[in-house]
Design brief:
This protein is α/β, with parallel strands linked by helices and 435 residues long. It has two domains: 8-117, no CATH class; 147-430, Aminopeptidase (3-Layer(aba) Sandwich). Helices cover 32% and strands 13% of the residues. The strands form three sheets. It has an eight-stranded mixed sheet with strand order 6-7-9-8-10-13-11-12, sandwiched between helices. A three-stranded antiparallel sheet has the order 4-3-5. Helix 1 (8-18) packs across helix 2, helix 5 (160-169) packs across helix 7 and helix 7 (256-275) crosses helix 11. The chain is globular, with a radius of gyration of 21 Å. The protein starts with 7 loop residues before the first helix and ends in a 5-residue tail after the last helix. Belongs to the peptidase M28 family. M28E subfamily. Residues 1-24 form the signal peptide.
């Protein structure tokens, strides 16, 4: 998830200190916006405007700190790279920079990075209201059918696997999508997932390659009764994102909760299901997306590639942050109610009430909150379950060095509830093929 807060002057100071740059007194400065002016040419034409273009702090000390850091950290040389972003459903996209995207994260502003969609023919989403759903015509079951099967699956679920997997996954310095460790952590995860399904002939795992080097991982489970006429139809997608970020991207970012927790939630659900011999009737997929923190970049490319091939999943559930219970609060499952499919969200709430040991609670996250939004963009019903209400989620530690499994409030017991939810989601929508 991509919500945090910081100051640009502090960013400059920490950037320099982190690379043993020049010593300087504390700096003061402000972020300014350039004059609004139309963009000369793009596939969005009149719908896109070049504003606001964020500039460096004017304070000489901040400039010296950033200049020194840029010479030593390759990533900082990319800060001026132009990027097309959209921050609200009812606003035009605008051009900013990588530095501008950092500022959006610091100010707790969700956004799509639409740069790669120029020329794709897929327009930015226009929601009539903040609570609306683009896919109201889709319907989902109003009851459950697989309690017996899922009871056996739940008995197999353990926190041992998530603990071991998350310990390894958070051992990388960070999983920033443009970094070398971002690539290495993705390859480590790929091997882990391949090992879980190595002996299952009806499961395939592949990478969706991205230009930035950290790839998304897509796992396909062929349904037992999928016919050639149904090729390209997927009953459900369970997703999480595999990258992490610090407020200053090249600094350490263990990302245990955001979104290491969602990543291992999917793996444990898959392991527990397979341990009971599960094969769905219909095709199911598990996705681990790259570059969510960069503006939903990985999931946008995946969703648009599927749309271009005519592959339209019937439902998508995002699991982003599943392991935190704020001290002093009740453990609950946050059901996001804005910018999602209302019918699918009602179905997810039914699953929580039926199969989980903790209650649901409604919450709102805003536009472009996580990877489910990329599927909404291409017309796929999507939903999002999170560890708590937005206000009670792990806002103080995500995107910092403190997002670790040892942090106060981090709970593998809570994570296990989301393993149950993921298992129920794919079984109830994909079915259970009897041998």
């Amino acid at each position: 998830m991509r919500l945090s807060t910081f100051s640009l002057a502090t960013a400059a100071a920490l950037a320099a200190v982190s690379v043993q740059s020049i010593h300087a007194a504390p700096c003061h400065g402000s972020v300014t916006e350039s004059t609004t002016r139309p963009l000369i040419s793009s596939s969005y034409q009149a719908d896109v405007f070049e504003t606001p273009m964020l500039e460096l702090p004017s304070a000489p000390a901040a400039m010296r700190l950033l200049a020194g850091a840029i010479r030593r950290v390759p990533f900082l040389g990319e800060l001026s790279e132009p990027r097309l972003v959209q921050t609200a459903h009812d606003q035009h996209p605008y051009w900013t920079t990588e530095l501008g995207k950092m500022y959006l994260r610091w100010s707790r502003q969700n956004f799509f990075d639409l740069t790669a969609t120029l020329g794709s023919g897929i327009e930015p989403i226009r929601f009539p209201t903040t609570a609306s759903s683009l896919v109201q015509s889709s319907s989902f079951p109003n009851t459950t059918y697989h309690e017996k099967h899922l009871k056996g699956v739940f008995a197999e679920i353990s926190d041992a696997g998530p603990k071991e997997n998350l310990k390894g996954f958070t051992s990388f310095r960070n999983r920033y999508y443009r970094s070398e460790t971002g690539k290495q952590s993705q390859q480590w995860l790929l091997k882990l997932i391949q090992g879980v399904v190595a002996d299952v002939p009806y499961i395939s795992v592949r990478e969706h390659k991205h230009s930035w080097g950290q790839n998304s991982i897509l796992l396909h489970i062929s349904g037992a009764k999928s016919s050639s006429a149904e090729q390209g139809h997927i009953a459900a997608v369970a997703g999480a994102h595999l990258d992490s970020t610090h407020q200053i991207p090249f600094l350490p970012a263990p990302g245990a909760d955001d979104d290491g927790s969602g990543t291992v939630t999917l793996i444990e659900a898959l392991r527990a299901l397979l341990s009971k011999g599960w094969r769905p009737v219909k095709d199911i997929e598990f996705h681990w997306y790259s570059a969510e923190e960069g503006g939903l970049l990985g999931s946008q490319e995946v969703a648009q590639a599927y749309a271009a091939k005519g592959v339209r999943p019937s439902a998508m559930l995002q699991q982003d942050m599943t392991a935190f219970v704020k001290p002093g609060t009740e453990a609950r499952v946050g059901i996001v109610s804005d910018f999602v499919s209302t019918p699918l969200t009602d179905f997810v709430r039914l699953l929580v009430n039926t199969y989980l040991e903790i209650p649901p609670v409604e919450t709102k996250l805003g536009y472009a909150g996580s990877d489910h939004a990329s599927w909404t963009k291409v017309g796929v019903p999507s939903a999002f379950a999170i560890e708590a209400t937005f206000e009670d989620s792990n806002l103080q530690r995500i995107h910092t060095t403190g997002d670790t499994i040892d942090a106060p409030g981090f709970s593998f017991d809570h994570l296990v509830q989301f393993v149950r939810l993921t298992s129920a989601f794919v079984v109830e929508l994909g079915g259970w093929a009897e041998k």
